[in-house]
Amino acid sequence: MNKLKQAVDYFVRYLKPYWKGLLFAAVFTLAGTYAQIKAPLYLGDAVSGLTKYLTASFTPGAHASLQDFYKALVGMVIFYLLSEIGLVLSGLVISRISSDSVGEMRLGLFANLQRKTIRYFDSHQDGKILSLFTSDLDNVFNAMNSAVFQIFSQGVLFLGIIWMMLEKSLTMALVTMALSPFAVIVALSIVNKARKQIERQQQATGDLNGYINEQLSGQAVLLAEGRQQASVEAFGPFNEEVRKASQKGQFFSGLLSPLMQGFSLLNLAIVIFFGSWLVLHNGMDKAAGLSLIVVFVTYSQQYFQPISQLTAIYNPLQLAITGANRIRDVEEKPNEVNGGKKQAGPLKEGVVLSHVDFAYQPARPILKDVSIDVKKEQMVALVGPTGSGKTTVMNLLNRFYDLNGGKITYDGTPLQDFDLTSLRNRVGIVLQESVVFSKSIRENIAFGKPEASLEEVKEAAKQANIHDFIMSLPDGYDTKVTGADNLFSTGQKQLLSIARTILTNPDLLILDEATANVDTVTEERIQAAMENVMRDRTSFVIAHRLKTILSADQIVVLKDGQVIEKGSHAQLIAEKGFYSELYYNQMVFD
Ligand SMILES: Nc1ncnc2c1ncn2[C@@H]1O[C@H](COP(=O)(O)OP(=O)(O)OP(=O)(O)O)[C@@H](O)[C@H]1O
Asked: 350-585, which class in CATH?
């Protein structure tokens, strides 16, 4: 119930601005439905008129006229036409409102995700986040577009028919409605069975997608290990589960319509039988009797339509409620806190980490009592075995996460006192795995400073040693990078990323040296680019190369989340500790 309320709140929030349109749709639906339930009465009058005409034609001396018949026929056509117009118009308004409001929901969701903390993305798979935009919002759209409209129009139709039938004849109305409790029970049990299969199908599809995702992202390993056939074979059971669940789901969903049709036909026979019995045994006027039967035949046909439609939309509605709740869950996850008001200015003194404790998960401390003091324009090289916490230190400097203990200050002010954007504008990051967006090379370099002129972009690229490569491409700086393109090697991507950082002219630089897949020429280029970007800047570098480490003002050695040694290369070698062992074993420097 709580989930339903949450979903309703969500829909109401996005539909509120469209109240006028919804009102129009409601009025059109009411008018259309009214015309739809009124039309059978004219059909009854037409039958009555025709019967009177036929009776009079066979009665000598009687005046036979088809006027009533024609009048009723015209009335019937007009009312059916009005009903179509009303329902089509309301359908159009509803579909417009659905697509507009779902567009706003999509925008709201995306904007919301942009405010989430890095922790949110750590604990949610990309595929799951993407499915919020695809399957969940699709389900919401389908429900808004058809289910909401159906609930309203079919609900009104259902009540309207009952009302008309009661007005016309209480006995016939009760006869027409007699079968409906059975029909509802049967319909609900089918819908329930279909729902279970739909849930099973969704689960199976999720598992299948997960498997495909994993196998495609590990394609290179599959090829290298010759596991393609095994991969196809393992795909089989996932595929089979989806097939089975969707087949059963379709079976049950498909059963609903013919069964309701069956009920409707059975009802038709009952209505005709009792109608004729009433006419024959109550000495009713022939014309009125026939008219009554025809009217109820039509109503009995119409009466089962809302029952089957309303039960059929139960499942799409359920999916939409689940979808809306999933989207709301995103809204409820914590956003990045921008508590500080201070604007970070150019760095004057330096950055200090003092007694920093940090854990990604409460039970597993990662950094323990880490203290590092870096003065303006100094360079700190972080070294240490894999998993020792080097990247974690970098993540904290940019305030991707908040600390569990201790503090980090920028010119003496704790990071959380700064306005986040102003702080991050002062910090530049070059990650080991550089990100290239589906834009032109120029836009990629100017990502953090879109207003940069082409000259500035070129200058940054020159300093990053990637200008010549860009100029060798047919479209130069206008070359579009598409997702599928493997335009850049890992090293070149890092050069591009360095150019991007140079352009934003950060005060504090965080750099993770690329180690993998870099040939010696590119390595030299990266080295030179790094020297350019680090010149006259305060920087933290996760260093893998000897040259970088030797030129550092300070080397900080991390092990198991603790600083175990600190000092210049000469000092640390003289200490003959962990660093000198690393150095002599060449473990980090090859
Ligand atoms: N987002 C995360 N959520 C939970 N634990 C994490 C997360 N990122 C890193 N860790 C854990 O924190 C520890 C330190 O990781 P970190 O990436 O800082 O090490 P590192 O020294 O940079 O390693 P490497 O040299 O291999 O990049 C590791 O044990 C890792 O499992």
From this structure: alpha beta
The helix (run of H) or strand (run of E) holding residue 539 is strand 538-542
Sign of CA dihedral 47, 52, 55, 58: negative
- Please name the helix (run of DSSP H) or strand (run of DSSP E) that holds residue 162, with its range, or none: helix 149-168
Neighbours of 131 (CB within 10 A): 19
Distance 388 CA to ligand 1 centre (A): 7
Q: Which residues approach ligand 1 with their CB closer than 6 A?
A: 122, 360, 366, 384, 386-392
What is the C-alpha R_g of the chain? 37
Per residue in 31-47, pLDDT tens? 998 898 888 889 888 88
> For 364-368, 458-462, 500-504, 521-525, which range has the lowest pLDDT when averaged over its residues?
521-525
Å from CA of 514 to ligand 1 middle:
16
Residue 567 to residue 379: CA distance in whole angstroms: 12
- Domain at 2-332, CATH class: mainly alpha
Cβ contacts of 336 within 8 Å, gap of 6 or more: 115, 116, 117, 420
CA distances from 106 to 19, 103, 117, 138 (A): 20, 5, 19, 10
Give me the residue spans of the domains in the chain: 2-332, 350-585
pLDDT at 147: 79
Among 62-66, 158-162, 174-178, 321-325, the least confident range? 62-66
Concatenate the DSSP letters of all residues of 123-144 into one string.
Answer: TS-HHHHHHIIIIIHHHHHHII
What is the CA(392)–ligand 1 centre distance, in A? Answer: 6
Mean pLDDT of the chain: 86
Please give the DSSP secondary-structure letter assigned to residue 116: B
Q: Pick from 504, 559, 562, 568: which is nearest to 537 by CA?
A: 504
**In ligand 1, which atom is closest to the CA atom of 384?**
21
> Which residue has its alpha carbon closest to ligand 1 atom 24?
386
Ligand 1, atom 25, residue with closest C-alpha: 386
